[in-house]
Write a structure and sequence with these properties.
Lyase, Ornithine Decarboxylase, Chain A, domain 1, 2 domains, 8-stranded mixed sheet, 7-stranded parallel sheet, binds pyridoxal-5'-phosphate
Length: about 350
């Protein structure tokens, strides 16, 4: 095995979905966000595991991603497209029965004219200023659009991972202003919003990162292990250096292992000289620069030479590694490259 193995615990992901589902009342539905190939973990297997666990509604970023989810799940589950109804997507939206979340008057017009009667939702901008119909526009057209029967009115919180941030209450208030009295199903909360409490749950929640064990859902069951094979080991004398730019200098007689993954596999170069690799519970420092296809690790303190070491796992979950790299769990996960073998763990049904 010359490339790393990313082991994905589908039972843990399904259990995290059920736990987040239980955090809201009986009348609140819980969807699952599986954009970007299910945060880099492989949307076919992840979406199927979530559907088997009870999820009936899925969100993706683009219609093309919706095609992969429909292929995985077959007819039935709702697949909502966050980028809405883009020019050129009409046929795909129709043929694959996707539900666009319309973001602008232009998209609303396009959808109602090209696919009258086809399900849609509307995304409203409550202050994030990224996607969605704005307050004044909405006030002008709401009665007509509400009559057309959207399946969902939704918006997205900018600061939900900071419970005390004033934006949360402000966006909640604007969302009420824009949607109270419509009688339509509503959704405001992603993972962070679920944790803010019942006032944010409305009729549907949309967790993504929490399903995969990422912050801010600290209670998640860890779902990932990334193991990297040792290609070669060598002894290095005090004063010798390791890797590009000779960025690490041995201070003692050391054993250095070269592992098969680098920045081309989504290990940020900012991990150079900073992260730990794990042999079970024993930490081994990453030494020197991360290169394109390899990293080097000081394994001097291990009792024997391991076949592989873990860079993600219970001892170093994704957010810990992301902190070391100066990024966030979302970015680290979605950067995990195509060279890893993705191995799925699932109890037989
Ligand atoms: C990505 C996204 C989600 C999921 O967010 P998490 O923080 O991963 O739970 C929900 N809604 C929208 C609009 C999104 O873009």
């Amino acid at each position: 095995m010359a490339t790393g193995t990313l082991t994905i615990d589908l039972d843990a992901i399904a259990a995290n979905w059920r736990a987040l589902d239980r955090q809201s009342g009986a009348g609140v539905q819980t969807a699952a966000v599986v954009k970007a190939d299910a945060y880099g973990l492989g949307v076919t297997r992840v979406a199927r595991a979530l559907a088997n666990g009870g999820a009936r509604r899925f969100f993706v970023a683009a219609a093309e991603e919706g095609a992969a989810v429909r292929q995985a799940l077959g007819p039935g589950p709702q697949i909502a497209v966050l980028s809405g109804h883009m020019a050129g997507d009409t046929e795909m939206i129709h043929d694959l029965d996707l539900t666009p979340m319309l973001n602008s008057l232009e998209q609303i017009t396009r959808h109602l004219e090209s696919l009258p009667g086809h399900p849609f939702g509307v995304q409203l901008d409550t202050g994030m200023n990224r996607l969605g119909v704005e307050l004044l526009e909405w006030q002008a057209v709401a009665p007509i659009i509400v009559d057309a029967g959207p399946e969902l009115l939704m918006s997205h919180l900018a600061c939900a991972d900071e419970p005390d941030h004033a934006m949360n209450e402000m966006q909640l208030k604007v969302f009420h202003e824009m949607t109270d009295g419509t009688g339509l199903p509503r959704s405001l909360a992603a993972t962070g919003g679920i944790l803010l409490g019942a006032r944010y749950h409305f009729d549907l929640t949309r967790p993504g990162i929490g399903l995969f064990g990422g912050r801010p859902y600290e209670a998640a069951i860890p779902a990932l292990t990334l193991s990297l094979p040792v290609i070669q080991t060598r002894e290095v004398s005090p004063g010798e250096t390791v890797g590009y730019a000779s960025a690490w200098v041995a201070e003692r007689p050391s054993i250095i292992a070269t592992l098969a993954a680098g920045y081309a596999d989504g290990l940020p170069r900012t991990l150079s000289n900073r992260a730990q690799l794990w042999d079970g519970d024993i930490a081994c420092p990453l030494v020197g620069r991360v290169s394109m296809d390899m990293i080097t690790v000081d394994i001097t303190d291990l009792p024997e030479i391991p076949r592989e070491l873990d860079i993600l796992g219970p001892n170093q979950p994704v957010d810990v590694l992301a902190d070391i790299a100066g990024t966030i769990g979302y970015e680290l996960l979605t950067a995990l490259g195509p060279r890893y073998t993705r191995r799925y763990q699932e109890r037989p049904a």
